[in-house]
Amino acid sequence: MTSPTSTLLDEHAAASSLIRLLQKEQDTLIAANIEELPALIVEKAAIVANMAELANHRQLALATTGFSLEQNGMDQWIAQTNDNVALTLWQELLSLGKAAEELNRINGKLINQHAIYTQNALNALQGGSVGGNFYGPNGKSTMKPPTSKLIIG
């Protein structure tokens, strides 16, 4: 039987890699180097897939022990085994998860700001109004087609 803690070192390394990549993504967004994002997205997807596989292995091992697959089940397993190294790795993994979640949230806001900027630029080029509201409270588009054609010549 594999121990539920056997993947923790690999999970920790993967989560650390994800944090570094999310920070790089944030730096890229701040610098508006949008053309670099597709490669980062591919790399991020690979890391997240690896993390999911590792977590699945941990959960399968935890399930065979009769503990809950949730965080409290892992906490209980570690407490029962008195494994201080695993406890430290697990706590750091949870902290890395929270840090990754926050970086991802911020990156999402930066992406939204780029989308608003791009939409405003398109509106200006098409002669529409400039504003950040794409959808109204009812979920319908607030974008209105231009009433006159823009002639460039």
Uncertain spans: none
Percent strand = under 5%
| Overall outline | elongated
Residues in helix, %: 55-70%
Distance between the termini: 74 Å
CATH architecture of the domain at 8-111: Up-down Bundle
CATH topology of the domain at 8-111: Methane Monooxygenase Hydroxylase, Chain G, domain 1
Structural class: mainly alpha
What is the β-strand count? Answer: 0
What is the class of the domain at 8-111 in the CATH system? Mainly Alpha
CATH superfamily of the domain at 8-111: FlgN-like
Report the sheet with the most strands, covering strand number, pairing sense and barrel closure: none
C-alpha-based Rg, rounded: 23 Å
Count every helix, treating DSSP H or I runs of 4 or more residues as helices: 4
Order of helices and strands: HHHH
- Indicate the mean pLDDT: 85
Short description:
With 153 residues, the chain is an all-alpha fold. The chain has 4 helices and no strands.
